[in-house]
Amino acid sequence: MADEKKTDDVLESRIDRQLFEFIDYTTGNKIVNKLTDYAEILTEGKISGIINFNYRLNSVQTGTVTRILEDIQGVSKIYTVSMKGSKDLQVEYISNIFSDSENPETISSYLNLKNIIENRLTHQVQQYNINMGKNSTTLAIPINELRGHVKTYLDLSVLNVPISTKAQHGIIAASLHDTYITLLNRQDFWNDKSYIKFFFNEDDPSKKKNLLLRREKRLMLREIAFNVKQMLDKLHAIQYSRMQASRDPSLSEARAAPPLDYFTRRTKSETFTDRMLLTPFGKQYGSIIEKILDRIFDPDRKDTYDEASEITVRGKLALLYNTFKLKMNLAQYRNEILEVVDYLVMQEYGIKTFVEKFFSFEKKEAGQEYIEQFLGQLFTVYFEEDFSSLFRIIKSLDMKKFACAFIIKRIYINEGENLTNFGFFFVRVIARIGGIRSQ
Fold first, then answer.
1. 345: helix, coil or strand?
2. What is the DSSP string of 224-269?
3. Which of 149, 147, 145 is nearest to 165 (CA)?
């Protein structure tokens, strides 16, 4: 359970704090661009070269970036038999980052990778059946058998003892299985004709969606693309915050001071001067915006939430979600939306945990994209309501766009690295309302 919680934490934050110290947005963006539509198998040396293209990282840092990419399922790990003279198995990777995650079949790199994995599976099914002493070399591999081999392999790996060829071929097949179901990009991949040719899956529906090696839910390519975007968004926000620190001597001194807790850091940051506040727009509307943001991100409000608050929010969310499904006007529940979003912007978890906490009443599993649409509407109503005093004064579209950019900048400056996952979601909603393209 502890390992699963640790994995969830990494997935929710999309990127851990170790990464902030040696990867900036520009480097992260370059790595992602290199991995987008990558049409070949990546050896460990190749993926290290892509990550450490400027030769400034050490092996531990390069490995950390690879681990983060694995955690967000941006890459899949594949095992294969090592070269003669080597022991154990060799590790390779494939990229799951595609320029069109909604229609990957139109991308030649996607088709090439899928073809490579299918060819490997054809060979591996034969090798697996031979090693297991089965009557036919073309029998589909039972998923329950692979789970047993994975457990054996992982248990023996930590003991540093020889691992049987059966378990090794099981782990190879399991890694190809996880890679293949990601590339199939179907909700019901177990019904795909080519999948059935390689694997025999008798799991119940809840287990079918889990990866064999990582023992967590397999993501669709669009969900992986979302994870990658969140990682870059967070790096961008941190880079922006640090740029502001370098421009403002008082901010630089504060960053160099001994670490403070979340609440002290935020209170301190409110004293920093931003040149935008000295512009005509800032002088006229800056105080209005600051008061609204101070209320939204007031750290003292976090202490007022308890288990009873979560129960209250769950009930209000049920009402709002049913209204959303019926395509009715959510704005009629203004007070409920304000209370729900006030609660969410203070929470550290992301959409995955949000669904687990609050959508147990949904009989059919709600897709992440649908949940995001629902949340997007809630946050839009929240933004329009909270900033209604400002937009009653500002009428022109150009001024509204500038106001949205101003608000986003003030959020980044005031909150910086302490912005929660839903805080970043709120920023994206504001950017969309203002017609601001993400960089």
1. coil
2. HHHHHHHHHHHHHHHHHHHHHHHH-HHHHHHHHSPP--HHHHHHHH
3. 149
Concatenated DSSP letters of 151-179: HHHHHHHTTT----HHHHHHHHHHHHHHH
Among the residues of 14-43, which ranges form H helices? 17-20, 25-35
For residues 234 and 263, what is the distance between their CA atoms, to the nearest angstrom? 20
SS (H, E, C) 317-337: HHHHHHHHHCCCCHHHHHHHH
> What is this structure's pTM?
0.58
Which of 281, 285, 282, 292 is CA-nearest to residue 383?
292
CA distance 374 to 256: 41
The neighbour count for residue 18, using CB atoms within 10 Å, is 14
| Residue labelled with tokens 């851990």 | 16
Tell which residue, 49, 73, 68, has the closest CA to residue 59. Answer: 49
> Residue 349: helix, strand or coil by DSSP?
coil
Domain boundaries, the chain: 2-221, 248-433
Tell me the pLDDT tens digit for each residue of 139-185: 999 998 999 988 888 888 767 677 888 888 999 999 999 999 999 99
